[in-house]
Amino acid sequence: MRVAFFTNFINHHQVHVADELYKALGSDYTFVATEEIPRSFKNSGYPDYSDRPYLLKAYLEENRVEAMRLAEEVDVMIIGAAPEVYVEKRLVLNKLTLRYNERWFKDGYYHLLSPRALWYYYNHHTKYRKHNLYMLCASAFTASDVAKVFAYPGKCFKWGYFTKVEEFDIEKSLVAKRDETVRIMWCARFIAWKHPELPVILAKRLKYSGYSFVIDMFGSGEELENTKQLAKQLGVEDVVEFRGNVQNAEILQEMRKHDIFLFTSDRNEGWGAVLNEAMSNGCAVVASDKIGSVPFLVKDRENGTIFRSESIDSLYESVKYLIDNQQERERISRRAYETMLNVWSPANAAKRLLQLLNGLMNEQKVEFADGPCSKA
Fold first, then answer.
1. Which helix (H) or strand (E) holds 321?
2. Closest CA to 282 of 322, 333, 344, 325
3. Within this chain, do residues 76 and 97 fall inside the same structural domain, yes or no?
4. According to the model, what pLDDT value does residue 279 have?
5. What is the pLDDT of residue 113?
6. Do residues 177 and 308 both lie within one domain?
7. Are 55 and 10 in contact (CB under 8 A)?
8. Looking at the structure, do residues 195 and 326 belong to the same domain, yes or no?
9. Helices and strands: H and E segment counts in the chain
10. Based on the structure, what is the number of domains in the chain?
11. Residue 210 placed within a domain
């Protein structure tokens, strides 16, 4: 089985699954990057995966013919953020193809009022609803979005982004974190739809309630100064610390030192790979219900907690529950780690994807109860 994955550029959300697919398929697997990694990403320390043996740089003139040949000839194409020209002929020929998308309507459904948008969705998606075309959902909301245009009926599968999951002694980590002061972590860009104000407002509520805690906020961005000013206004500078930008390897270690991880983005968060990382490193997460990855990865009060997006009351109640119940918090942290290690790991995702693709190619039913490649 020859498989080609087309997207804009290779990144740390995809490379670990790609490595696993290459282990399984060897030269029958190709990752086709249609763009070079943006300079801004490189300057900010973005990892360079350009030496991967399975990588085809389609943005180079000498590789464009080969990229198009692969698009037309491989047994299976998976296509994410890549030009439609690569998939057009496959759709006409009804060759097995899987699209790979986050939710379409992050900013609302007003697009459905546009004749031009409807024409696009029909010609690229709905028209082929009975063809050999499927959807890998990189958001829990993708399936409902595509259903709005009557596309991919019963043909959507749970997928996402997959960060590296390292085995470590979770019990030792939990014991090391036991302390009267509960350590809470937030890590994101300081921009409006990430809602950096919520941890600061939460800090005021927790402080007023008499809890012993500290909230460490990592990252930078246009809302950083406003958030610092809010912390000053609310009188929580003693319990909220702004840690700035930190290399990813250090962030992962910080996650193992913190009890609770706050993920406060709204519906604009397509997936949110930081959730994978926090759960993989044994944090008890408190995550917004509108984030794309949350309904796939988190089962409320089983391996994490879910709060109503943008609701400080809901956020406070979830965090309060975890602070008040140390044993429950540790059980949730343990289950989060186990979920990522055993279910949502790159290795398991790649294994299941190959099983699914074999089933689709041979018209055999392949079903998983939950996790990667289960029905969305």
1. helix 312-324
2. 333
3. yes
4. 98
5. 85
6. yes
7. yes
8. yes
9. 15, 13
10. 2
11. yes
Same domain, 130 and 271: no
Closest to 293 measured CA to CA, from 323, 261, 327: 261
Query: Is the whole model's pTM more than 0.90, yes or no?
Result: yes
Task: Give me the average pLDDT of each 10-residue run along the chain (376 residues).
Answer: 96 94 98 89 74 96 96 97 95 96 91 90 95 97 97 97 96 94 97 98 97 97 97 98 93 97 97 97 98 98 98 98 98 98 98 98 93 97
SS3 of residue 306 by DSSP: strand
DSSP reduced 3-state for 157:
strand
Structural domain boundaries enclosing 132: 3-162+345-361
Instruction: Judge contact between 88 and 77, C-beta under 8 A.
Output: no
Secondary structure E strands in 151-273: 156-158, 182-187, 213-218, 240-244, 260-263
Q: Is residue 368 part of a domain?
A: no
Euclidean distance between the first and final Cα of the chain, in Å? 25
Side-chain-facing half-sphere of 208: CA atoms under 13 Å: 9
Beta bridge partners of 101: 137
Is 374 part of a structural domain of the chain?
A: no
Residue 90 in domain: yes
CA dihedral 192, 193, 195, 196 (to 10 degrees): -60
Q: Tell me the one-letter amino acid at 313.
A: D
Are 122 and 210 part of one and the same domain? no
CA distance 6 to 360: 19
Instruction: Report CA dihedral (80, 160, 281, 369) to the nearest 10 degrees.
Output: -150
Query: Do β-strands 29-33 and 3-7 pair in parallel, antiparallel, or remain unpaired?
Result: parallel
Quickly tell me which residue has 């953020």 as its tokens.
81
Same domain membership, residue 330 and residue 181: yes
Q: Judging by DSSP bridges, how do beta strands 240-244 and 133-137 pair with one another?
A: unpaired
Question: Nearest 5°: phi and psi at 261?
Answer: -115, 125
Confirm if 22 and 54 have CB atoms less than 8 A apart: yes
Distance CA 70, CA 341 (A): 33
Could you give phi then psi for residue 152, rounded to 5 degrees? Answer: 50, 50
Q: Do residue 132 and residue 44 come from a single domain?
A: yes
Instruction: Tell me, yes or no, whether 131 and 232 share the same domain.
Output: no
Tokens of 188: 């994101």
Alpha helices by DSSP H, 104-179: 115-124, 142-147, 170-177
Strand partners, 304: 300
Q: What is the DSSP letter of 368?
A: -
